Records
---
Amino acid sequence: MKLTKPLFILVTVLAISSCTKIYKKPETAVTIKEAYKENFYIGTALSQSQIEEKDPMVTALISKEFNSITPENIMKSMFTHPEQDRFDFKLSDKYVAFGEKHNMFIHGHTLIWHSQLAPWMAQIKDSTAMADMMTNHITTIVSKYKGRINSWDVVNEALNEDGTLRKSVFLNSYGKDFLTLAFKLAAKADPKTDLYYNDYNLCNAKKRKGAVDMIKNLQKNGAKIDGVGEQGHWNLTSPSLDEIEQTILDFSALGIKVAFTELDITVLPSPWDVVGADVNQKSEANEKMNPYPKVLPDSVQQQLAARYEAIFKLFLKHQDKISRVTLWGVNDGQSWLNDWPIRGRTNYPLLFDREFKPKEAYTSVLKLKEAKK
Ligand code: 9MR
C-alpha cells in the first residue's frame, strides 16, 4: 500500500512516540545519585567488608545508588597509625581504590579525633611531642592520598555541647591552636583537597555558635577551611527544620560549604526520654526500649519517609550551599544505631532495609526530584 503524505507523517509520528515510550527509562531505574546529580553528592559510609567487596550484590547497590563514600571506621587513627613509627594503609588503600574504580567522590574520615584514637597518641603530654605527632600523622596520610582523596574531616568533634572546646589530649597538650595547626598541615600536604570541620548536634544554638567562632578563628589565623560537616544523627522530630536551616545559613555565611556527613534518623525511643521505664523490671524496660524487634510498623515507616522527605526538601532549597549528603551506612542492618545508646536493639534509620530493599523513605526522597521535573 502506498502511503499518502499526511498518512505517512501520521505513521512516522506514531512510530517515534511509541519508540520514545519503549526507550524511556522506567521510573525504578533512576537511582538516588542520578536523581540528585545536579544538586549535591549522595554518599554512604562503608564498612570494612563493603570496602573489601565481600558481597557483589552490595557492591553493585553501592555503586548504583551512591557517588560518594566515607570510611565508617578504617581511617581512624587507631587503624591507620597504630604505633608511633608504624602506619597501616592496607585497608585505606583498598578504600581509595574502591572509590576510584567506581568513579566516586572520596572523603577521608578522620585525621584528628579524640575517639578511636591510637593508644600511643593518648599518652602524649607536651606541646612539642603533640606538634611532632600531628605533623607526622597528617602530613604522611594526606600526602599519601594527595589528588586522590577529595575532601577530609581534618578535625572531628572538638566541641562540647555548650560550644567550648572539649577536653582532649590535643587541647591538653598543645592548647586551642591545635586546630589551626591541623588545618595548616593538611592544606600544605594537599593544597587542593577540601578541608572540613565535622561535628554532631550543630543545630544546638550554643554548640553552633562555638563552631562559628572556631571557624572564624581558623580563618583569622590564615588556615584554609573549605567546609563544615554537620553529622545529622537525628530523630523523627528533632532537630526542627528551622534549626537545620539555621545551621545551613550560619555556616554558609562564613563563605564555606556545608555537608551533611553522617545522616541517619533513629526511630527508637531514647533512654533519656522514656519516663516510667523501670530499670528494675528489665524485660518491660527492654520491650519499651526496643519496640520493633521484628518489623517496623507501617505508621512509623511512613513517619520516617515523611521526615526524610522534609529534610531533603530543605536540602534542595539550599542546594547552592550544600556539597554532599552522606547516609551513615548502606542499610539498616549495618547501622551503629542498633547498638547505641543501648546494645542489641533493632533500628531502622537508613534508606535501605536489612535485605537491601529500598524503603518508603528511599522512594519519598527520590519522588521529591521526580516531582520537580
Ligand atoms: O559508625 C561508627 C561505629 O561503627 C563505631 O563503633 C563508632 C565508634 O566511635 O564510630 C561510629 O562512627 C562515628 C563517626 O566516626 C563520628 N561521628 C559519630 C559516629 C557515630 O558514633
---
Amino acid sequence: MMTNSQNNELEQTIPTNMSEDFRDKVAFVTGAASGIGRTAALAFARAGADVAVADIMEEGVQETAQMIEEAGGQATAVRCDVTQAEDVQAALDETIQTFGGLDFAFNNAGVEQERLPLTEITEEEWDRSIDTNLRGMFLCMKHEIPLMLDEGGGAIVNASSGAGVKGFKAQAAYSASKHGVVGLTKAAALDYAESNIRVNAVCPGIIDTSMMDRFTGGTEEGRQEVIDQEPIGRMGKPEEIANAVLWLCSDAASFVLGEAMVVDGGQTV
Ligand code: NAI
C-alpha cells in the first residue's frame, strides 16, 4: 500500500500536462513545409510553443506558419537550405530576433533516395543524401546548441529512419545517411549531457507523406508494397511521429538522451 508521501512524490515526478513544458518556449523545425515537419510544427504550437519553421520550399513553409497562426499560435517562416551553414545561421538568427531564445529543435529536413543498387547510385545522388540528411543535421546542431547553452538547456530531436537502424535493399545512400544521424545524435548527446541539452533521434517507419508518395509512385500497388512491410498493417500518420518528437522534448523524457526512438509499427522488429 502506498503512503501519502510516496503518492505526493509520484505526483511530483509524473507530468500531468505536457503542455506546461512547451508554454512560452520556442521550437525550431526544419523541413517544415510538408509531411512530418509541418505536423510536428503544428503540434509544438498547439502545445503552447512559439515556432520557427524552416524549409527550402519557401511557399510551403509560409503556408505552415499561416496554419499555425490560424490555429491561434505564433510562428515565423524562414527559407533555409540546411546544407548551407549561412542559411542555417540566418534562420536561427531570425528565430532569436522574433522569439528571443531557443528551447527545442526538430531537425527533420531530409530527402529520399531513388531505389537503386549501390553500384548504380551516382556520386551526385550519394552527395545529395549525405549533404541533406547528415551534414544538414550537423550544421543545424552546430548552430542550435550555442543558443540552447545561452538558455541553460534544451532538447533536440533529429529525424533518422528505420533505415537508420537496419539496412534496406536499394537504399545504400539513404541508409548510410540515416545510420549516420544515429551516430551523430549519440555523440552529440554525450557532448552536452552535462549542459542540460538532451539530444535524441526519432526513427519513423513507413509514414504517409509526400516523400512516401514519391517513393511508392503514389499508386495503390506501390503503397500496398510498403504497407506489406508493416506488421501493423498500415502506414503511420505524421501525427504519430510528432507525438514521439514532443514526448522526447518534454520533461517526461528528462532522463532520455542519445536514444534512437523507433516509431515504426513493427517494421524493423
Ligand atoms: P517530406 O518530403 O514530406 O518533407 C521533407 C521536407 O524537407 C520538405 O518540405 C522538403 O522541402 C524539406 N527539405 C528537403 N531538403 C531540404 C534542405 N536542403 N533544406 C531544408 N529543407 C529541405 O518528407 P517526410 O516524409 O515528412 O520526411 C521528414 C523526415 O522524416 C525526413 O528526414 C525523412 O527522411 C524522415 N523519414 C520519413 C519517413 C516516411 O516514411 N515518410 C520514414 C523515415 C524517415
